[in-house]
Amino acid sequence: MKTILIACDHGGFALKESLKPYLKNKGLVVKDLGAFSEKRCDYPEFAYNLASKIGEGKFKRGILICKSGIGNSMVANRVPGARAALCANVKVARLSREHNDSNILVFGALFVKPGLAKKIVDVWLNTKFQGGRHKRRLNQLKEIEKKIRSRK
Questions:
Q1: Which of 8, 41, 87, 99 is catalytic?
Q2: Which residue of 17, 47, 104, 147 shows the fewest CB atoms closer than 10 Å?
Q3: Is residue 99 among the annotated active site residues?
Q4: CATH classification of 3-151 is 3.40.1400.10, yes or no?
Q5: Sheet holding 3-8: strands in order across?
Q6: Is 10 a catalytic residue?
Q7: Domain parsing of the chain, residue ranges
Q8: What is the pLDDT of residues 99-132, one digit of tens each?
Q9: Model pLDDT for residues 49-99, shown as the tens digit of each residue
Q10: Burial readout 42-62 (b: 16 or more C-beta within 10 A, e: otherwise)
Q11: DSSP structure class, residue 111
């Protein structure tokens, strides 16, 4: 059984809660990193916590949810090794896997309702990275990450 991380802020709580049983029914172990209620909270701590676990290679995939998805994307993509894709439709989710080997799926709960989120999750989980010319580009991203790390 594979494990998937999931996290949200208060704005993404309801969508997160609707996705957890769906993911479990697909045979995944769901590791919920919070938030655990709709009480107002700050998205950066949740996004960073999830993205750092993915970036370090402790887990392969994760899902982040906030109201717009933008904040979570901004935080997650600052973490080396994390490749977060904000997806509001199935085609973007498929391309994020095929071309970019995304390892974090980001939802904006204002724009993606549970039914659509489940369709996007299915495509995202089942689409493989194409490699080829996309592998070259992914390697360029890794080189950029090395440059950033060396500045610290």
A1: 99
A2: 147
A3: yes
A4: yes
A5: 29-32, 3-8, 62-66, 104-108, 84-86
A6: no
A7: 3-151
A8: 999 999 999 999 999 999 999 999 999 999 999 9
A9: 999 999 999 999 999 999 999 999 999 999 999 999 999 999 999 999 999
A10: ebbebbbbbbebbbeeebebb
A11: T
